[in-house]
Structure formats: structure tokens, C-alpha cells
Amino acid sequence: MASARGSSRRVPDNESSIAYVQMDGLAVMKMIKHSHEESTGNMEVAQGALLGLVVENCLEITNCFPFPKHNDESMDEEEYQLAMMRRLRRVNVDHFHVGWYQSADVGNFLSLPLLESQYHYQTSIEESVVVIYDTQKSARGFLTVKAYRLTPQAIQMYKDNEFTPEALRNLKIGYESLFLEVPIVIKNSHLTNIMLSELADMIPEEEGTKFLDLGTASVLEGQLRCLMDRVDELNQEAIKFNRYQQQVIRQQQDKHRFLQKRSQENAARQAKDEPPLPEEDLNKLFRPIPVPQRLNPMIVSGQINTYSQHISQFCSQSLAKLYITQALQNAKEGKSAP
């Protein structure tokens, strides 16, 4: 997993104000190339380091390079990153580590390893961000590149290393306050902009106006399937927590009955002028039930929220296209029928 130990600097712990992220077209294309190579080859998640500089309230990302694969045991990841940054510095390229990137599939990037990696990055490199590139949506013509940073509540949660309901309630943290999205601006050189303008003019008019293209249908279908899986997983977590609450209530009732019985026995012994029974440690008789960790349900809730937002984004256009094409198909079949 991504590590921030390859950084060559340490920044203060105070909160910085990164208003937006500016990515060079070269860095974006290298990230896209790496992500699609990994997704088409072995279906692994692509990860890499982001290099750049902080200019006032802007984080400029000017270059990137991929992390070595986990199955290559002969290569040390930390030494590899340091060697890459040393070589880039020799050729006068920005070599400061400012974050990392990861590929995603229809928005399923929120996970426990990602939270832990970003926590280590932000505690060692305060301005660092994680850039998420969605391969499936981009392959369908919807470029999806987003930058995220952990909120102060999420950082405090990991510092405390407490994921119980009480701790999360005291921090007032939920899935909606785990990450803060930072706007991304993609900057190209003037020559690149001229080339893109010429390429846009070269596209035939009929190729650029396919308003009834159903390319969003498969993306929407994949998101709906993932949403159903996450809802089932969240339901299982809710069942576990309800079972824990029932066990706690049952244990409290057993404690109450035990104390009542002990008080009645002591009252009877006192009436016979006998010494009362010695007090026993209730924690030894009734062992505390371990509280289930709430971090995983919170992550699943965040995934459900992400899928819901993406689905609502696509529904207005995808469902309208599906109904239109269905009506055209029915009309065509009606005409062709004898």
C-alpha cells in the first residue's frame, strides 16, 4: 500500500488552506495511462506518487510516477521512491512529494487501506492529497478525476485509534465528514491547447453529436449492482450491532437479578445474625461484551452515499435515453410486424 515514508521533508502540523489542486496535462496523462494498463492487464488497483509544489493556496501537481507492484519482492518501495525523486531532481523536475493517486472502478475507492494511507501521508506531508481516477466512467467518455483530503475529525479519529460508537459520537464524525473534496484544475500548455482545438475541429459533426448514445447504461448498471452489494453489507453490519445491543440488555438484566438475589440473601443472613456474603466483582462474573468497531459500517455508508450520488447524476440522462430508445424500438417492431 502507498506509504509517505519516501518524503524528503516534514511540514508543520497546523492546518493549511489548499483551495484547489492544479494538475499539469502530463501528470494527468501518465496517471490515466498507468490506471488503464493495470485495469486491462491484471485488474489491479493502480497507485503512484504525485510530485509538485505548493504555491500559496494552490497545490500544483507537475509530475507523477507509479509505485512498484506488490508481487515484486526484490524491490523496496521506499528506496524506489527515493531513487525516483533523486533522479527527477537531477533533471530539474519538481521532486517534492505532495500526495499519491489511485485508480477506482465506478466510485468504489473508499476503503480502510485508503484511509490509513492518506492518514500517514497527511501526518507527514500536511498538504498532501489523494487523487482518485475512475477508469470505468472515463472509458465511457466521462473524465472523472477527484482530489480528497482527510478532515481534522478523521485525523483525530486515527490518532485516538478508537472506533467505538462513543468515540465517533464524541468526535461528531460520520461518513460525510471523512474526506474533504478539493477542486481540480487541469492546466495545459498553449501548444497543447492549440492542438486540442485543432483535433476538436477535425472530429466529424455526426461523431460529436450522438445524443442518444447509451454508453452510460453499462456504467449505471455497474453502479446499481455495487449499490445493492453495499446495502446488503450494511444490513449485515446493522444485524451485528443489533445483536450486540440485545446481548448488553440481557447482561444488564442478569446483573440486576443477581444483585437482587444477593441483597435478599444478605437480608436473610442478617435476620439470622450471620455475616453478609462477600461482595464479588461483577466484571469477573459478567465479562464486558466487546463493542463492535463502527469504522467499517461508516466506510460502507460512505460507499453507498457515493454510489447514490453517481446514480442520481446518471439517471436523468440515462433513463430518459432508455425510454426514448425503447419507444423507437417498439415503433420499429410494430411497423415490421405483419
Automatic annotation (TrEMBL):
Gene3D superfamilies: Cytidine Deaminase, domain 2. CDD domains: MPN_eIF3h. This is Eukaryotic translation initiation factor 3 subunit H. GO terms for cellular component: eukaryotic 43S preinitiation complex; eukaryotic 48S preinitiation complex; eukaryotic translation initiation factor 3 complex. Component of the eukaryotic translation initiation factor 3 (eIF-3) complex. The eIF-3 complex interacts with pix. Interacts with mxt. Component of the eukaryotic translation initiation factor 3 (eIF-3) complex, which is involved in protein synthesis of a specialized repertoire of mRNAs and, together with other initiation factors, stimulates binding of mRNA and methionyl-tRNAi to the 40S ribosome. The eIF-3 complex specifically targets and initiates translation of a subset of mRNAs involved in cell proliferation. It comes from the Eukaryota. Keywords: Cytoplasm, Initiation factor, Protein biosynthesis. HAMAP family: eIF3h. The keyword Phosphoprotein does not apply. The keyword Protein biosynthesis applies. InterPro entries: eIF3h (IPR027524), eIF3h_C (IPR045810), JAMM/MPN+_dom (IPR000555), JAMM_MPN+_peptidase_M67A (IPR050242), MPN (IPR037518). Belongs to the eIF-3 subunit H family. GO terms for biological process: formation of cytoplasmic translation initiation complex. The gene is EIF3H_1. One of its GO terms (molecular function) is metallopeptidase activity. Residues 258-283 are annotated as: Disordered.
